Amino acid sequence: MKIKDKIFDNRINSLNLLIETTIEEYYALSKDILDNNEFQRRRVKSSSSVYSLLKTDLRQGCVIPPIVLALSMEAEAGKDQNDDDLVNTILKHKEKLIILDGLQRTYTIRDLVNELESKDDPEKDTILKHKLRIEIYLGINKLGILYRMLTLNTGQTPMSSRHQIEIIYSDYIKAGIDGIKLIKETDDDTPSNESEYKFKDIIEGFTSYIERDYLTIDRTDILDNIKSLEKLAIENQGSDLFKDFLIAYDSFVKKINTLSNGWSFNDEVLDQKLSGQPFAKTALKIFNKSQVMTGFGSAIGKLIDNKAIEETSDILPLLDKINSENINEDLNTLIVRLDNIRNTAKKIGNDQRMYFHFFFRELFDKKSDGYLNLKDAINEAFTQYERKTR
């Protein structure tokens, strides 16, 4: 790997390197990228004929457009490092590389090398030494990666913002955040304790925060997504929005779980019989559902837009002020309200998301009637839900 040029990207505050490498070197590098990030988008089947032609071109030494990678990390790879140090930084952290543009080209290169190996092609050594160009963004933050993903892939098969967010934040699955455990769908495990969540559900909540939409629509419109990121750029100064979001939500769940004092649903104490199974039977299980997380995300985003709070972490000092005169009664009321919604909703999940969106806006907006009062927030949210749907 040889660095041919260096430019500092002032838009995303990152060092961009133009690197000359070989098919053989990139093959070795790409294995780590794909093996360590299961969320990278898979091969586009409909374009197989195009990539078959590309494979033939690569055999002949065709110069293809640079593949663009990103290394999200602290900017130890600064402007003043020499080329050898920069290459060493890349190789030292290669398992953290993400492909921003060129994933399908990467699969084609891997197909070609595997084909050369399996057939013991006499031209193998020559082909493996054919030159490639790659670009690598060093020291880029996660919002910058999202921005570059969107601007680089405008002509490609569109990728939803939710999928992009999955790719970018998947490193937190292994490392966790402040004792919070994120569980993949493929793991033989389900959230059952405090500070345990499905990664997919948290991603949906964070996507709702970014898009300010509790319905978590997988928008692929490039301009709409870029507008969302432009708005978030101000919030992102010196912070990790995903980390802030997760810590705030986890802190809220812990507070409610403590307030609940071991509450569990008991239909014998209700004045009315539910139409079916309750939404959940413990406080922890209520707030471990994706409908609640998406409502939280969109509500916090709207509160920031409306200047009710400045940033997500502003709700942390408010948590200790949340009050409930009778937590058992309040949680039972919540279950009844959710049962009412089930009886009238056309799409139950969407209506539940809408309800929790109103609930969190009531709870954390000091201008609302339900500010920091669990009972009032539960009831006022249902009133707003009814106004919206009837």
From TrEMBL:
This is DUF262 domain-containing protein. It comes from Chryseobacterium gallinarum.
